[in-house]
Amino acid sequence: MSEKDLSDELLTAYLDGELSPAEAADVARRIAACPDKSARLITYRRIDQGLSVLYGGAAEPAARPVPPARTRSGRWWLPLAACLLLAIGAAGGWVLRGPGGEDPSAPRIAALATDAHTVFVRENRHAVEVTAEEDEHLFRWLSNRLERDIFAPPLTDFGFALVGGRMLSNETGPAAQFMYENAEETRLTLYVSRSTEIEQTAFQVTEHDGVRAFYWVHEGFGYALVGPLARAEMLAIAQRVYDDLEEPAG
Amino acid sequence: MALGQRNEALAAELPALRRHARALARDPSLAEDLVQDTMARAMERWHQRRPDGSLRAWLFTILHRTFLNHRRRESNAPVSLTPDGTLPERLAQQGVTAETRLWLTQLDRAFGELPQEQRQVLLLVAVEGFSYAEAAEAMAIPVGTVMSRLSRARERVRTILEEPGSVIRQVT
User: Fold this and answer.
1) Does B111 touch chain A (CB under 8 A)?
2) Could you give the 3-state DSSP secondary structure of residue B129?
3) Three-state DSSP class for B32?
């Protein structure tokens, strides 16, 4: 099918998670091949996000406690809107920042990765854009967009299986997020994007509300592994991710 | 469920209903009317609700049906496009940056320019996370219509926001 066949209605249904996994994967592929549709999808997401800030739960004067995550009530940002600041860049793309605005000492890549983690691990139906079933497509798609060979290293040794991934954007351009989950439904995410930060291949750690980000910057790309695990466990997994990404087998 | 429990459950949903009604009607007094009517209907029909269903979704469905009836009765009444006067203050309290406040204010205006049925479907799906099937039931329209309305609504908002000079128009 050509991209002309990718109607706005299909784009909208994709955005709302109304398509079957097979349809969604097909639409994701066609969106990835069409800069115009990708841009439109990002704009639609910003619009939805903005509407939720304007008219969603955060607008309730006496908001009740946030219901448990992973329910099908509201979009992912709805329970978050009250506790996250929104920074919607005028030039397109969006980022979320933690309470109190940007901490100048917190590295950008860790903050972006942690925010994206917090946002998407709560999701059930919309946790990822492309599921692990389509991993080859997912890796190819994100590699093309980031202009760097990128994939999700297998973490089954640590009991984590790949759920899938999605494309995000930040001020440097596209970003990739992969999500993993173990049997206890604990989720880890791996965030990768271009970075203008100083090369730093020793792991750095940030912690925010019990969520740790192990990150490093190498050859113009920033990487961050984010999750709620203990430090030692996170470190071991981060080491594996680093090794696999820097020297892919084969 | 005892009456006390029912009333408590309904009262807990009041803030959500109020904000939703304000966004839908864009008129504080009409919004309050809608909420009152919705509450009255919910009490009357309490026994009809599905006990395993979401109370909020059920209430929003009643609210939307009520809204449609209001609109039908007053089909000639102009849609109020008054922006929410408390918006900039509220956003400032949430710590939103000036740039983002400006963008959100524009978004609020753009949303206000949409036809009522497009506002409805955006609120239900994009803000409240209703599935297309749930939104279709709330608005008493086919699922395909939900999709086409949504698609038109998002595209219309995008077009309004991208009109040249929309930022300038806003700040002067």
Assistant:
1) yes
2) coil
3) helix
In sequence order, which ranges of B45-142 are alpha helices (DSSP H)?
55-73, 87-93, 98-112, 116-122, 132-139
Query: Distance (Å) from the C-alpha of residue A196 to the closest C-alpha of chain B?
Result: 23
Task: Determine contact, residues A6/A31, Cβ cutoff 8 Å.
Answer: yes
- Residue type for A235, please? L
Whether residues A43 and B158 touch (CB distance < 8 A) is answered with yes
Nearest to A18 by CA among B28, B63, B42, B135: B135
pTM above 0.80, yes or no: no
A219 CA to centre of own chain: 21
| Domains of chain B, start order | 3-73 (1.10.1740.10), 87-171 (1.10.10.10)
Report the alpha-carbon distance of residue B91 to residue A90 in Å, rounded: 17
Contact call for residues A52 and A78 (beta carbons, < 8 A): yes
Which of B18, B56, B150 faces A73 most closely, judged by CB atoms? Answer: B56
Q: What is the radius of gyration, based on Cα positions, of chain A?
A: 18
pLDDT digits (tens, 9 = 90+) for A30-42: 887 888 888 888 8
Number of other residues whose CB lies within 10 A of the CB of residue B30: 19
Dihedral (C-alpha) A136, A115, A108, A83: value to the nearest 10 degrees? 160
The dihedral formed by the CA atoms of B117, B118, B119 and B122, expressed in degrees to the nearest 10: 120
Which residue carries 């992969």 as its tokens? A178
CA dihedral in degrees (A214, A164, B125, A19; nearest 10)? 170
CB-based contacts of B136, cutoff 8 Å, min separation 6: B142, B143, B145, B146
Tokens of A147: 């202009």
pLDDT over threshold 60, residue B99: yes
To which H or E segment does residue B13 belong? helix B3-25
Identify all chain B residues contacting A86, using CB atoms and an 8 Å cutoff.
96, 100
Listed residue (A189, A227, A194) closest to A208, CA to CA: A227
pLDDT tens sequence across A154-173: 999 889 999 999 998 887 78
Q: Are the C-beta atoms of A186 and A193 separated by less than 8 Å?
A: no
| Domains of chain A with CATH codes | 3-246 (3.30.200.100)
Question: In this complex, is the C-beta atom of A13 within 8 Å of any C-beta atom belonging to chain B?
Answer: yes
How many interchain CB pairs under 8 A, A with B? 117
Q: Do B129 and A18 touch (CB under 8 A)?
A: no
In angstroms, the separation between the Cα of residue B147 and the nearest Cα of chain A is: 6
